[in-house]
Write a structure and sequence with these properties.
three-stranded mixed beta sheet; 394 residues; 21 helices; mainly alpha; single chain
Amino acid sequence: MNKDKYIRSESENCTLTQKIKKLLMLCIVILSLNTNVSAQKAKVVAIADKLTSVSLYDNDGWGGMPDMWRFQDKLNKVASNDELVILARNHRNGAARAVAFRLLVARGDSRYRNILYYSMNDTTSFLQQSFDVISSNNVANYMVNVLVDHWDYQSLSDSIYLDSLFRSQPKLMKKAKHLYKTFISRSTVRELRQIFTQKDSATLDSVIFFTPNLQHIGRLSWILQNLPAEERYYDRLHKMYYDEGYTEALPALCRYRRETDKTAVIECLLEFSKGLNKEHVIEGPEGRTNQGLKAVALWPDSAFLPTLLKVRDYEVSRTHYDYYRIRLFYLALMSYDDEISYNIIDETLRMAEKDKTTLKYHLEFFREAYDMNPRSRYEFFLRKYDNEINDLSL
């Protein structure tokens, strides 16, 4: 009896020992997995920490590869989708959040939508490199640009040089569009449309338009340029301009041609010398004159003519020129398409004749304005200054 009890006791001890061994082995495996997970996490975070800026291309413009591109590529190879979601929402570097978001979109992970709307107010700025050009961007704007399926030419409109270059060289514009879409999608355009549908795009535009204080998102400017003058949008535009101080809303507001908005246009036009010193050089934030001129181009009302003459007198007298404003000035005048505007243009060009350089720029941007919105009434000036205009292209 005692012998049987001893054998049973010894058997139980062996079973207990085996269980303890298995438990220890399981603990070792778990610890090993946790160590591996921690090591993986640390590796991903270490790469993300290095993303202090964003490289848009794998070329720095001088034949080399930017360091940031290498880090972006490494993150793409190492990070899982779950890790990218965490980075896109929570990493301390805005550039890392932006890159993680783009990689999620490229992988077709639908969680990008929640991250996008979560980040709409993320104004964290970072530098981005496009070949050898460095510029500034912000997280929300970057994320939206990754998704919107259009070529936003407005981003170039403030550059007269690029504007003229692309319009005169369609092949270059076509190439620029291709490069831009290739980067933002990191896949084909067809794949992007499957990830971000036309319905998604309409929803995003609606959110951007109706959500207050999203002026840091460049897409808003594009929306305003393409917004139809329907009654349902007026109140939002009114708040955007008068309450939120978004000056770019003024031209869209003026499509409705409400008498109550005339004062706002005149006030903007009168800020032609704001931010400029006596030599007409920028030394502070400029005024809203350019937006006022855009508004007049959409609403050519006689009430604005006296103020346009004040703008004209100032611009003709400048020794440091605002090329963009000169073009906007002629676009605004030609929108009237009447004898009064014709006479003002005639007088303006005569005033510009006092100085060869002044005449050169006024003729150049008058011609550009005419090309953008041809009106036969003003074709006479192209013939009158034919020799001078031909000299511009030499």
